[in-house]
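Protocol step 4 of 6: structure prediction from sequence.
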Amino acid sequence: MVEAASGAPLAAPNALKKPSSILKTMDAMGNVAQQFGVYWPNFIAQVILFGIVYFVLRKYAFGPVVAMLEERRRRIEEGQLNAERIKKQLAEAQAKYEEILARANAEAQRLIEEVRLSGERLSEQKRQQAMAEAEQIITKAREAIEQERERTMIELKHDFGRLVVEVTEKVTKKILTPEDQQRINEEALRDLAA
């Protein structure tokens, strides 16, 4: 910039050229628009019509379309939330199922162990009962043997006494009186017991 003597700036020579350069640029644009078949009055009318159609569509069509899209977005969001909630519920149900299954397995194992112990106790009871019955049988057999032995001993004593009397009668050739027979039997039994 050049300053005047008064100190005020002088206009630059390029500044004076600006209006003519703008005109040249507009003229060039007009030529380009003409080459492409743009007719300015039609173009401006189309822009105005576009604006009117845009505002009408915005007021009557875009609103419902946007509302429908918003509703659809909301439903999709709800669906995702529901899917996550269902997924959580499914995970909780799976955890409960596994917990119940674990408890059932533990209960089954406890029952199996209980049955096994019960079977062992029953087996032990049966074994002890069989041993007691065997002991009773042995005791009864011993008693029967003892009774049979006593009966046999009584018979043997009687037979032995009778034989002693018969032998004594044959040896002495004399008939013994009942007192003699009693005395000989008692002596023979004392010798036999000793």
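Step 5 (inspection) to follow. The helical segments are 13-35, 40-172, 178-193.
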